[in-house]
Amino acid sequence: MNYKGKEEEINLKNYKMGDNYAAAFREGLQLAHVKKLVVADNRLNEKGSLQLVQGLNKHIQELDLSNNKVGQPTIHHICLTLKVASESLDLRVVKLDNAGIDDS
């Protein structure tokens, strides 16, 4: 894990946390005041990616879920969260390259 002090970034790319560790990480994520979270290439499926998204705090500005099998429920939750809480969230960038989603 890389935590870049003043830049307030947690980079867990290729950490391979999987869905089981995503729930535990979510609990700690709510306490961290980071602006950028990179969890690309972590073997996350719908369950783990949804848990992480549900645990985002209001300080997150950029989220990278690339190369995980995110799925439609997570995308729906991100859209709903942005619609409902857009004034209280700083989230501006969501990267979903090769995330197993389609146009449906």
Largest sheet descriptor: 5 strands, mixed
- The rough form would be described as globular
Strand content: 5-15%
Strand order of the largest sheet: 1-2-3-4-5
Category by helix and strand content? alpha/beta
Helix content bin? 25-40%
Which consecutive residue ranges, at least 5 long each, have pLDDT under 50?
Answer: none
Tell me what you see in this structure.
- With 104 residues, this protein is α/β, with parallel strands linked by helices.
- The protein has a domain at 66-90.
- The chain is built from three helices and five strands, in the order E-E-H-E-H-E-H-E.
- The protein has a five-stranded mixed sheet, with no helix packed on it.
- The radius of gyration is 13 Å and the shape is globular.
Write a short abstract of this structure.
With 104 residues, the protein is an alpha/beta fold. It has three helices and five strands, in the order ββαβαβαβ.
Keywords:
single chain, 104 residues, alpha/beta, 5-stranded mixed beta sheet
